[in-house]
Amino acid sequence: MGRPALSAEERELRRRAIIAQVGSLLRARPYREISVQEIADHCGISKGTFYYYFKTKEEVFWDALLQNLQDLTFELIMLMKHLSGQINTPLFIFCLTQLYGAYWHTIRSLPLLHTELSASVGIERVEAFHLQLTQIRDILAKPIYEHFGIFANENEAQLFVYGLYREVVGISAVHEAFLLPGVCAAKDPIFEQVMSLFASKIILLKAQD
Question: Which domains, and CATH codes, for the chain?
Answer without folding.
Answer: 56-208 (1.10.357)
